[in-house]
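Continuing the batch. This is chain 6 of the set; chains 1 through 5 are on the previous pages. Same settings as before, nothing changed between runs. Recording input and output for traceability.
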Amino acid sequence: MKTLSTAKLKVLNRYHVIFLAQSIMIGTGILSLPQKMSSMGYTQWLVPIIFGITATLTLWPMVWLCSKYPTEHLFRINEILLGKIIGKAINLFFVLQFIVFSAGIISNYMHLIQSTALPEQTITLPVICLLLLLIYIVSGGIKSIARFCMMTFFITIPMVYFTRWAIEKGEFSHLLPFFNFNAKQFFDAFKDGYLSILGYELIMIYFPYIMDQKKAFRHSLIGIWISIFLCFFTTVVSVIYYSEWQLKNVEFSVLNLFKAGEFTFVERIDIIGITLWVFLILSSVTAYVWCAKIGIDSVFKKKKIYILYLIAAIIFVIVKMPFSREVQEKLFAASNYIGYMLIIWPVILMLVYAVRKKKVEQ
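Output for chain 6:
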């Protein structure tokens, strides 16, 4: 029976793995990536390459740890290595982080809609519609999310074409010189900018569902570097098109690149971008919500469909909470930085695994 259940568990092929890694990483983060890295001025276009190298190095311990427990996700691995009490406590912490992180992505997107397309409308109805779509996709499981991620990539990738006018009007001299920044400026840009590419770490949750686990690292890495290339490309275009002041002060600067476009039959190309971006939002949020549901199921040892509705309701409350935008941003920023913990967490578990294995051998 164990072999049968394991066989049924494995539903993700290599294309699913590639596009899960790629699409989860592209939420609203890339929209304001140039602003987050503005401390480095024009030289920021080099940073996405460093992001890619860092992501490659941090992906390896994640896959290595999961390969030691090929049928278990991170929540179960925490309990196995740290014990049930500590493991469940940490799992709940991660679940909370996933939920708040998801709410932050949705809140940022709603802020984008409200500030550009619907300035005089409330966001209640759009949030409800988005959450209903989220529930529908997540209820189909990780394979449903992976298929949606694949569809999202091919629907949204044509938006790259809308940057052609910004490239034509830009100043390529902005790309020089290469290294006119100090250590503090680089640290600030890296600290704030790296949050925009988080998402690949979720492989530790869906690893048991991968068919060819021996090639999971390679396939996930392909997806990561597709996203890194897109971040690199949009950052280069932003650098050549904007002034240093605009890089620092223009919110959602990548979306504003579309305004440089010239179509006689379309008045505002950026509205097309905002509309298509909902696919990228859903591909990110659905994965995090699915992981949160898996975490809750693991903690309480029960699989209940109402858990998904409960998570959606909590997200709605967080997005609609009666606090100022500044308070919300502080909450979401705290959640984002906690996300860094998930990046280094597998290294800590690797050390625990090594100690436990050494004790058993003795």
